[in-house]
Amino acid sequence: MVSVADGQIEPLTALAWNRVDSTVWLPDWSGLIMVAKEKGAWDSIQLWHISYPGGAARRILSDLDNYGSGIRFVVRRSVVVGNAGAKNN
Q1: Residue 67: what pLDDT?
Q2: Sequence-separated (6 or more) residues with CB below 8 Å from residue 73
Q3: Percent helix, strand, coil in the chain (nearest 5)?
Q4: Do residues 53 and 3 lie in contact, with contact meaning Cβ atoms separated by under 8 Å?
Q5: Which tens digits make up the pLDDT trace of 6-23?
Q6: Which residues contact 81 (CB under 8 A, 6 or more apart)?
Q7: Which residue ranges make up each domain of the chain?
Q8: Residue 16 in contact with residue 39, Cβ under 8 Å?
C-alpha cells in the first residue's frame, strides 16, 4: 500500500508472491480478491482473499485450475473470474 499523504510504501500482506495477475477491491473495502501465485508454491495461479487492513491471506479456491486470466469484477458477494482452462494432471 502507498500512503497518499506521505508516499510511504507498506506491504499489504506478509506473504511473498511469484506472480500477481489482477486484483480488485471488495465493494466494502474490507479486503481484495487477487489472482496470484504464492512464492515457493507448487500449484498454479489461484484465487486469494487478502483482508484489509489486517493483511491475512486466504486461498479462496484450492484446485488444479489456472486462474491466470484474471478477475472480471466483484458484485456484492459474487466474484467472476476468467479460467485459463489448463489442468495440471
Answers
A1: 57
A2: 24, 79, 80
A3: 0, 45, 55
A4: no
A5: 989 988 888 888 888 888
A6: 35, 47, 67, 69, 70, 71, 72
A7: 17-81
A8: yes
**54 Cβ contact partners less than 8 Å away, ≥ 6 residues apart:** none
- pTM beyond 0.70: the answer is no
* CA-closest candidate to residue 33, choices 7, 9, 51: 51
The mean pLDDT of the chain is 75
* 41's grid cell: 508454491
Give yes or no for a contact between 73 and 24, defined as CB atoms under 8 angstroms apart.
yes
Dihedral sign computed on CA atoms, order 43, 83, 16, 49: negative
Cα dihedral 37, 40, 41, 46 in deg (nearest 10): -10
